[in-house]
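Hi all, long-time lurker, first post. I run a small reading group and we've been trying to get comfortable going from sequence to structure in the token notation. Rather than ask abstract questions, I figured I'd post a concrete chain and ask someone more experienced to write out its structure so we can walk through it together at our next meeting. Sequence below, copied exactly:
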Amino acid sequence: MPGCNLLVRTKNARHRGPTVSGSALSRKRTLVMAAPQHLSASVDETVYDAVISGGRVIDPETGLDAVRNVGIDGDRIAVVTEAVLRGRRQIDARGQVVAPGFIDLHSHSQAILEGRLQVLDGVTTALELEAGVAPVGVAYERAAREGRPINYGFSVSWASIRRHVVAGAQLTGGALGFQHGLGSDDWRAPALPGETSAMLDLLGHELTDGAVGIGVLLGYAPATEPSEYVAVARLAESMGVPAFTHARPLVEQDPDVVIDGAEELTKVAGETGAHLHFCHINSTSTRYLDRVHRLVDGVRAEGATVTTEVYPYGAGMTGIGSDYFHPDRLHVLGATGTPEDVIYARTGETVASRERLLEIRDADPSGLAFIKAFDEAYDPERLVQIVGLPGAAVASDAVPLILDADQVLDAFQWPPPQSARMHPRGAGTFAKTLRVGVRETGTLPLAEALAKCSLYPAQILESAVPSMRQRGRIQEGCYADVVVFDPETVTDTATYQDPVRPSAGFAHVIVNGEEIVRDAQLQVDVLPGRPVRAGL
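-- Answer (accepted) --
Happy to help. Here is the structure in token form:
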């Protein structure tokens, strides 16, 4: 049942009106154009802080898909109604869709500038959950001190804790980037029984400090004893939080892997009762996605809690010093398994040989690099399969901006320098989902695409983070995280060659009741983001 209504003041309670049946896009477009004729002539005399009027309001949870007016007071949606509303700020949404702000469960781009790129892609909450940080308190304090354009939050990093216990590395709260140290062999060594206990104690402490879950980069340490992952999952279950898992390789990708990554994740979910989230199931499953999804569906039918996420791109990106980029391991995720699958992002260089790859890994092990899993231009069916994966949330796996060695980035500058590089998914994931999944291929009804971008991520988190029951929805009493966009023009513009171009088509983006995108223009002096923490 919808959970936001009880928070609204009694005087603002309004009848929602009937939902619009049918999912044909053409029918919905006709409804949008006919908006003024369908609105009630009654007038609500309340003066709201802001009013979004005449838009096609889509709430994925209740099924509302109709022309409505939305009144906002403070940081909450006060009313969704057919009545005419008055507001101190009026937003004319005729001909546009009004939807919940998008929630990105997988964003390593946690600085102000990257957050601005994401908000122009409709994102109102971006969380670092796959890699995580440690200590989480340091990361939350830094974000609060600097301010953020969108809501932010962190899991606790199993990899960082493991590096600290097994290899003696310092804990930085994520200050050095998610990819720091992933290429070192020392942290991937087998853990002694006392070290495992120490890791679990530290993970538990971080969870009591508000970490949203446990981020488990198991695929970066594929020789880890399976019993260690079971122990981490049991801890997550006992604390009531998900474990956001980058799974080990599949047996098809690496016949020598300790255990098939998808079989391990699904089996452990069933055995422990833990909520295990399968990060970027598209990129770790590559061309075996059908088999992996069948495994997930099977354990779900048996009562296990396994959730998934996807991003609509054919190339991944991570630290070039990681296990995936060793010349002998490129076959795990690469299309051809040769160095030519790799592009070193700092220079844009396509790696020409095994020797050159080893040289870069030695010189810049934390440097980011692309690895091509498939060519989107020549394999569009696979892209459509990814976008349409049933039940999967959309998550970007955005990475931090990369600059030339002599450049210093001002965190508050806008726009980003044209020389900056990143994966285009950091700027365009959600608009690309709408473009490819809805408008160009019809793979997804618009309401389903919006659910993947907003409601599903909120539902994945809400057992651990109760406040997420009040996000990802357009309902009275919910937080006013809202996007207004044109379904006919919304599109990604970022490319692999020009990755910092913002998405287009988002006319307004509101975060906690504050308009951070107004008339398609970023408001650079607005930093309304708030922390998302477990238990709150």
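A couple of things your group might point at:
The first strand starts at residue 43 and ends at 59.
Residues 394 and 420 are 25 Å apart (CA to CA).
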